[in-house]
Amino acid sequence: MIRLRGVHKAFGRKVVLDDFDLDVPEGATVALIGASGAGKSVVLKHIVGLLAADRGSVTVDGHEVGELGQEALYALRRRVGFVFQFAALFDSMTLAHNVEMGLRRMPGLSSRDIRRRAAESLELVDLGELGDRYPAEISGGQRKRAGIARAIATRPRYLLYDEPTTGLDPVTTTVIGRLILRLREEIGATGLVVTHDLKTAYEVADSMAFLHDGRLRAHGAPGEIRISGDPVVRSFIEGAPELMETMA
Amino acid sequence: MPGKTLDFVGATGRAAVRFAATVGEWGVLMQDTIRGLRAVRIWGKLVFEQMMRIGVDSVPIALFIAAFTGIVLALQASYTFTGAVPVYLVGSLVGKTMIIELGPVLTGLALAGRVGASIAAELGTMRVTEQIDALETMAYDPAAYLVLPRVLAGGVMFPAVTLLASALGIVAGWLTAIQLLDMSTPEFVRGLETFFVPFDVVFSVIKSFSFGLTVTSLGCFFGFRTRGGAAGVGRAATSAVVASSMVILVFDAFWAAVLL
User: Fold this and answer.
1) Contacts of A78 in chain B (CB under 8 A)
2) Where are the domains positioned within chain A?
3) ipTM score here?
């Protein structure tokens, strides 16, 4: 289980998270929604220890992330797959080598195992034929899927998706949404999907959390969020800034 | 007037604090890099590749610079010595200058441009495209994976390239002397041997070793702290070259004061 309690994070004078709480229960997929720049990606980076909270608690499986030593942090990261917004593939490597990178840090895997599991992961995202291509030689949607393949290669317990559908056309967005659902079935990982794409959020999430002004503004099942009476949530869902202005 | 003085003092203080903070950040990265030495499995296979990129690929530009430096040294020495100093001392000046000063410094400055900018731009791009974050999420130590192989390769290859460049500079000076200055080969060699001491080579290696560590570590440092997309990558590359060049010249004076 991932749990954040009272997390505060500021960059200079800009407060991004202010007493932020979130629970991601075992086996569930939670969509964290909110406006661009609200701090959703910052939440993900706290979970894997890429950022440290100024105050508050971030725990994964009961371990306080900020208090882990280097080896314990690496052990935690091996249990977490991270899908980056723009895939963050290593452009000097083929897709297969990209996927193999995480596997090389897993103890007890032979070179043959690593190659086999990388190929399996690429197959899972329907990129089995493109293992020898470089990131620059494939489309944006394929890069996203390759990023997902790299994240799932270690068969992680948790999968964190950072804006998995940003910049994709509607059809590819649907493909990625279905892929997230399929991977949940096949890998069974607990998921946290950061997005401002409501269609994807409704489709893949068991529950949704709405981040606004650094705090958890709303939390509930997709159906509950969809009919929320909170003007801030409604403004976001309907893409209607005038609702916010009314409230102000 | 007191207000302007206070502004000046304040601005100087803030600049000094920023400089000290930057040096401190570089120190932390180097500490992480040294700690990364334990992770041989991560960096071991990457050092050879970096030696090729940093050293072997830099040989043409280093040799080009050294050859022309050797030619100019011979011509200028002959011009300066005419009628006053025995002409065979052209060999002394070319040899001594190439080995202990111009070989290491010109190679260091050329490689600061080529290698330092390249490392800063590469790592800077990796930073802004989250590739370094991706490494960390896959349980890699970025200092061990990215910095250590480059710094080790720089420490090994800068002296190698410098020795090669110095040798070619001397050969170019010799060819110039025998073709254009009416000197004979025995005369040039006599001059070369007159003031040569083996320690000159050691001095050259120590200097270029420190230049190698400087250029690669500063390239990595400015690459790692890149912010702000393409413009940030450009700034990182520029900062790496400027800082490396300045530190090379400071080290040049330092080693001369300490070792000569």
Assistant:
1) 139
2) 2-79+157-247, 89-155
3) 0.90
Of B201, B107, B198, B200, which is closest to residue B154 (Cα–Cα)?
Answer: B107
**What is the structure's pLDDT at A246?**
61
**Distance of alpha carbon A84 from alpha carbon A114, whole angstroms:** 22
- Give pTM, 2 decimals: 0.90
Calculate the average pLDDT of chain A. 92
| Helix, strand, coil percentages for chain B (3-state, nearest 5) | 90, 0, 10
Instruction: Please write down the HEC assignment for all residues of chain A.
Output: CEEEEEEEEEECCEEEEEEEEEEECCCCEEEEECCCCCCHHHHHHHHCCCCCCCEEEEEECCEEHHHCCHHHHHHHHHCEEEECCCCCCCCCCCHHHHHHHHHCCCCCCCHHHHHHHHHHHHHHCCCHHHCCCCHHHCCHHHHHHHHHHHHHCCCCCEEEEECCCCCCCHHHHHHHHHHHHHHHHHHCCEEEEEECCHHHHHHHCCEEEEEECCEEEEEECHHHHHCCCCHHHHHHHHCCHHHHHHHC
Distance from CA of B110 to the nearest CA of A (A): 25
Distance CA A223, CA A208 (A): 9
Across the A:B interface, residue pairs with CB atoms under 8 Å apart total 44
* CB of A68 closer than 8 Å to CB of A59: no
- Give pLDDT, residue A169: 86
User: Where do the domains of chain B lie?
Assistant: 2-259
Q: What are phi and psi of B141, to 5 degrees?
A: -85, 110
Q: Which of residues 139-168 of A touch B (CB under 8 A)?
A: 150
As beta bridge partners, residue A24 has A2
Structure tokens at B123: 């790592």
Closest approach of chain B CAs to the CA of A215, in angstroms? 25
Task: Say whether pLDDT at A13 is over 80.
Answer: yes
Q: Does A111 touch chain B (CB under 8 A)?
A: no
User: In sequence order, which residues have a C-beta less than 8 Å from that of residue B237 and are 6 or more positions away?
Assistant: B116, B117, B118, B120, B121, B124, B222
Nearest to A90 among B131, B137, B141 (CB): B131
- pLDDT on residue B77: 92
Amino acid (one-letter) located at B175: L
Both tokens of A216, joined, read 């958890």
Enter the CATH code of domain A2-79+157-247.
3.40.50.300
